[in-house]
Sequence to fold (384 residues):
Amino acid sequence: MSRSTKLIKILANVIYLIILGYLVIQRSHKTVMIKKIDRFLSDIKHILMWTKIPGLEDKGQRHFIDHKCTFLNCYVTTNRSLFGDLRYFDAILFNLQDISGDSVTLPVVRGVYQKYIFVANDSADNYPVCNPVYDNFFNWTWSYRYDSTITYKFITVYNANYENLGSHFQWIKNMTPIDLTLKTQFVTKSKAAAIFLDTCKSRSNREVFLSLLQKNLAKYNLSIDVFGDCGPLKCKRKTMFPCFWRLKKNYFFYMALEDSISMDFVTDVILYGYKYNAVPIVYGGAQYERFLPPNSYLNALNFTTEDLATHMNDIIRNRERYYDFFRWKNHYSIKESPVLDACGLCEKMNNPRWLVHIASYSQFRKWWNPAYEDRCMERYVIVL
Fold:
């Protein structure tokens, strides 16, 4: 009996071990869901911001991810000691305002293929570069200038399919006349022009131009209403929407006057006119036919103030002629651009041909502002 009991116990232990082993095997073969991770390219382009770059506040790769750039393998930092040697950075960025003020210390070592990049978000007339150390200093430029290595625009033009047309395209010559629906939006207009202006003194002397134009418009019982700190009219609420509504309903023209006269410098001030159905009267140093639809604006610098006043009066009195300034709406839309979107920078950093290209702006100061000697002399006299 004892022998049978012993055999039963042995058999029970064997069965227990078999069951336990089975359970262990089943647990070890439990299905695990593995999520595929899309990793960044191993070839990271390290970019050092030597000075603060407006519009590029995000560090690391965040900017390139958030903006859904074509290339994501760029890493931005302000940490100059990241590698212990500045020459390990692929590119170093220098901001216009800092180098124009001539108050920034510069790197003392430099790699052969390392790119020193000039970054500008304002005009060359407002911020000339005077220090001769910057001649033959920068390899690349990143600005509004058409001939920059990396270009940007304050405004972007889209076609009827809302496709970004970029910088080089042909405007449609024979645009379709506007329909009755759009014409009805202009029936309440009764005033000549408006401008929103908070900076009363400018490098471009737009305030002088406005004063002269006001005098000539008075001959036709017309005037320019100035809203903001530089005029008698204010937007009564905290937002600008009441003023935008008045511009759209009441005014034939909007005075899109730049604060400085510089090559290719066209800011988003132009959008007040285009967005709120007031024909822009532009005043700046750009070749506007590159940036704006034909017959959608008046270029103030093509007229004397007397002739411009006469021209504005003639257009106001001829509604069909006025309607023609809005034909562009059948073919294009114009929007504000994100200034200094770094997608273009990262794309250029991934171009093998550009990376190995060794060149610099030997006469950078003159390239940036052909009149830099006079502007720098003005600054020197003011400082004295």
The two ends are 120 Å apart (CA to CA). The CA atoms of residues 125 and 262 lie 6 Å apart.
